Fold this protein.
Amino acid sequence: MHKVEFEQLDETLYHEKLENGLEVFILPKKGFSKTFATFTTKYGSIDNHFVPRGEKEAVKVPDGIAHFLEHKMFEKEEGDIFQQFSKQGASANAYTSFTRTAYLFSATAQVNENIETLLDFVQEPYFTEQTVEKEKGIIAQEITMYDDQPDWRLYFGIIENMYKNHPVKIDIAGTVDSIQDITAEHLYTCYNTFYHPSNMVLFVVGAVDPEGMMKLVKENQGRKTFEDVEEIERIFPEEPLEVAIKERVLNMSVQKPKVFVGIKPEKMDLQGEEMLKHELAAELAFELLFGRTSDFYHHAYEKNWIDESYSFDYSLENGFGYAIIGSDTAEPETLAAEIKHTIANAVEKWPFGQADLDRMRRKKIGFFLRALNSPEYIANQFTRYTFNGMNLFDVVPTLEQIEVADLQKAFSLVSAESQQSVFSILPPEKKEAQ
Amino acid sequence: MFETIRLAKGVNVHVNETTQFKTVNISIKFKDKLSKEKASARSILANVLQHSNEVYPSHTALRMVLDDLYGTSLYMDSSKRGNEHIVSLNVETVNDQYLSEEGVLEKVLNLMYLVLFKPNTEHGLFKESIFLREKNAVKERIESIFDDKTRYAQQRMMDLALPEHPASIPANGSIGEVEKITNEKLMEEYRTMIESNEVEIYAVGDVKPELIADYIRNYFHFTDREKPVAAPSMELKKPSQPRVAEFEDMKQGKLHMAFFSPVTFRDEKFPVMQLLNGVFGGYAHSKLFVNIREKESMAYYVSSSYSSQFGLMFVLAGIDGKLEEKAVKLILEQLEEVKKGNITDVEFGQTKALLTNQLTEALDSARGQIDIYDQYMELTEDFEPDYLISRWNKITKEDIADAAKQLSLEMTYFLSGKESEIDA
């Protein structure tokens, strides 16, 4: 077991890669009562075209299958695994994102039993046609619930605008129609391909004894047999740099219009240190340009173009990414134009210097240290970083190295007019009173 | 957990000195009696005070100082508990130990002082442009509830079931009352808050209780004040319409049910209600989840919650618009099971285990510690998890069944898009 100390942060991380390929990380937190664990596979909604384990031909699977599989992992022949966690005093949950499926629990007692339950239920699939059919009603209600949430529709609307071919444009849960095609056989195909331990990470953080925990995990894994480690072949379509749709409007029941401007980044194949540096630099640049101390924010707030719902976000994964800026607003067109204008101005004349960078850097370091109070943040983010060849604990040293030129360079990849798109949600046109 | 130092009558500092966190959290809570008007005025006030102040007269200037202080977070919010309205000033700042700089905490305390005592004023009133902008912001916040159909349905049900009752008054007030607030009225509310509200100050982190208390004593000048007499809970009156259906342009049906219970937070039997809620619908092992979601595949979410301040139990479910009747029937059948005492040992044990986990876990965050301590202060001087855990362990299944028998269904509210579907 490797032990890495991060003296400046007062944290110690334990790590081992097991024989079956599983990466295990343990981070003890002083003074905490709870233990939080995530067991995550590098498999999300975008992985819908791949060569199944043991086969030669690539297959395409129905939209929403990774999320469907996540739901079905909880059902076993002997019953619902939530019941088992509850008996052991643990709150369990799971989520599916574009790139990951994570199973997790938090517990303040019976941590060893709960870790065994977590490892066992994720490594013992049980799917039948009957249980798959039964789940369709539940997931259809989940999809319908999201369909009624304007903020979710806004988020997916802008992603659909930006991407022409990449599966990131498909809703994570699929559609009520697409999930009807899912069969138990599909689930086994996806499971066997993506749930091999070599494609997974276990992260345990909180009130935990690292030696004892590592021993427990190794013994648990040692009792099971797995197939050999194999490279997974995923197929992604060509994606042009320019956005698929420049502008689109959706009408739905909202009290005030909503608008998002999305920008699709150039160079989405970064990994490791290069990705970390670019991601942090781009985040700093967007924070300076659109954050709460920016000229843009000040101006837009005073003019009433934005309200408390205003947000901006920069996100990058292997193969896709986006910057998104927007708000609920009475003037969606003006706001979108102002956002684009602000970007164009920064492209023409870069407005930030060393003092700006230093201030944002301090803010970012503070945010990171605050986040280290949260076991949930550490486990989820560390796993995301690991899947992209980065180390979460490199954030502060990397921030310290970044220079103004790096911000400008990162921003230049996420700023061209052809990479921008606008999506708005407007209240339905009022019908004339009869 | 917390050490309490009294600064004046009605003004206390509570400090938990701990190295568990990398940050220091401080909250200053101002408590007043809840009314729609108060809630509306105090929500605007919270926004105006956190916007800027005499020393940092623009939003940008204040936010830049916070960025420089390693991204210290500072915000004010409005909340309510029972008959109380609470305005809180919350900050979180990184412990100096992790920084290459000292004295950050003092600078942060000084900023808190400026936010509360040196507001951005002109001619004895709040700066008019800021007042108008923030008044509008609160109005828009209230309006935005409509876009979240679950919150909107819950608010509609409360307005219909218990109009003008504290249980239905939103922490941000109402649009009508917000519109009526003038700058003069807001200044009056500000003085009341600073001069006569009960003040509870919390700090969690690697800090000395005396240091925090001294700083506040020396700079903040909080004088003696009366603790608002906890008004007796208003009686819950039977709603005039027990069943209401409304329609909006939407796909899913939102079913909300309200039950009355005579047992509230101050009642000896309060922990029984927590167990009842857990067995009935609070968790993924509960009767509602297992039977209505897992067995019937009718819903993605179906759960119950207990609002202890007023003795209200809510059931919420997202279902197909055509299935209201069936869902109501199934939910009431599950409640009937609890009333009959048909509770398995497993359900009973799971509920106690999860309540215990939830409580212990909440204390692993500084904000959780502050919220729980502040809430239970009324019942016990030094809250420890065992205060509740030992009570849960004495409860029997019969106690739960008895508490369930006292529940009465007072309102069923259903929001759906049914009507528009028929139109089309």
